[in-house]
Amino acid sequence: MDRVLVQRIKPQQKTASGIYIPEKAQEALNEGHVIAVGKGLVTQEGKIIPSELKEGDKVLLPPYGGSAVKVDNEELILFRESEILAKIQ
Questions:
Q1: Residue range(s) defining the domain that contains residue 64
Q2: DSSP string, 40-87
Q3: Is the distance from CB of 28 to CB of 85 less than 8 angstroms?
Q4: Parallel, antiparallel, or unpaired: how do β-strands 40-42 and 74-80 relate?
Q5: CA within 20 to 30 Å of 63's CA: 29, 34, 43, 79, which one?
Q6: Is residue 18 part of a domain?
Q7: What SS3 class is residue 25?
Q8: What's the farthest any 2 CA atoms get from each other in the chain?
Q9: What pLDDT digit, counting tens, does each position of 15-49 carry?
Q10: Global confidence as pTM
């Protein structure tokens, strides 16, 4: 219930001068866009603490973690809300 589905931002494929960067040389960005959000964290008393994130938010992701999920041939990552490092304004 406190899960967040995130799509990583794709790295730049060419430089400002127009030179294409090979895939192996591209660094993986630790930023992403929130695609979907669960209802929130359920406490032991059964109360729901609503999520602070919403669809469309830009977030800072940890370098490791999350569960890779493929939806319509698109690779997405599923995180717990507590694993998200920051919300970028």
A1: 3-11+24-87
A2: EEEPTTS-EEE-S--TT-EEE--SS-SEEEEETTEEEEEEEGGG--EE
A3: no
A4: unpaired
A5: 43
A6: no
A7: helix
A8: 58
A9: 778 777 776 666 667 889 999 999 888 889 989 99
A10: 0.77
